[in-house]
Amino acid sequence: MATTNLLKLIGLLLFAHFATAVLSPGTSVLSARASVLRRGYIQVLYASDKSYIGSISSNSETGFFGLTTSNDSALVIQYDLASQAAAPNNLNVTNGQGAIASYPHLGLTFGTNIASPTLAILKTGSSNYCLLTAMQPTPKGSRPVMVDDSSPRSYPGESAVFTVDKSDNILLQWINPDGSSLAIHLIYAPGQNRLTATGDVAAYKEAFGQDRIEVLYHFVEIH
């Protein structure tokens, strides 16, 4: 009996040793699980009452995203569920067409004419804005950098700006050149069919038109 118990103890110790050795330092058994990928559309809703306007379109000849009301022409994005624990992060474009076809991620490209990335600032009291584009990845937590994107402009941008919360709302955060971060307001410009973002809705609408609509983004998973 004593020999049997001793063998069981040795077996448990060996299992614990090899289980620890397989995982990299600082990695738990739970965090080593396989990635869970989610795919779906981004619906755009009125911020005022959360009613539906449209979904982000998969096709753009201008390099800027607009809306569609058909799922057949809606953009499909994908993200790793585990990555959202350390959001904001990237959202991957899976079916981009036209000018956005060769870019792997959604992102924000600064829209206001500036001479340097150090001036790519969104803040309260400013009408500065960004445009929703497709782009190559920028480093997580990065300040605005010059990046290859679908925009015809040569302005700085950021890709790792998205958080999908537990209710599938998609929140965006811009990091300013000084390192400060800002939860930004999302805007739809119906006249141009473009999606933008700003730090101050009132200042933006004063500068660019009262027809601009504050909106929300909502993720709808494809099962």
Spell out the helices and strands N to C: HEEEEEEEEEEEEEEEEHE
Strand content: 25-35%
Low-confidence stretches: 6-10, 12-32
Percent helix range: 10-25%
Distance between the termini: 54 Å
Assign an overall shape: globular
By secondary-structure content and strand pairing, the structural class works out as mainly beta
Mean pLDDT: 87
Q: What is the total tally of β strands?
A: 17
Nearest-angstrom radius of gyration? 22 Å
List the helices and strands and how they pair.
Layout: H1 2-22, E1 37-46, E2 52-56, E3 59-60, E4 67-68, E5 77-80, E6 92-93, E7 97-98, E8 105-110, E9 129-135, E10 145-146, E11 156-158, E12 162-164, E13 169-175, E14 181-183, E15 185-189, E16 194-198, H2 201-208, E17 213-221
Parallel strand pairs: 3-7
Antiparallel strand pairs: 1-2, 1-5, 1-17, 2-4, 5-6, 8-9, 8-11, 9-16, 10-11, 12-13, 13-14, 13-17, 15-16, 15-17
TL;DR?
With 223 residues, the chain is mainly β. The protein has 2 helices and 17 strands.
Give structural notes.
It is a single chain. With 223 residues, this protein is mainly beta. The protein has helices at residues 2-22, 201-208; strands spanning 37-46, 52-56, 59-60, 67-68, 77-80, 92-93, 97-98, 105-110, 129-135, 145-146, 156-158, 162-164, 169-175, 181-183, 185-189, 194-198, 213-221.
Provide the descriptors you would attach to this structure in a database record.
two-stranded parallel ribbon; 2 helices; single chain; mainly beta; 223 residues; 15-stranded antiparallel sheet; globular
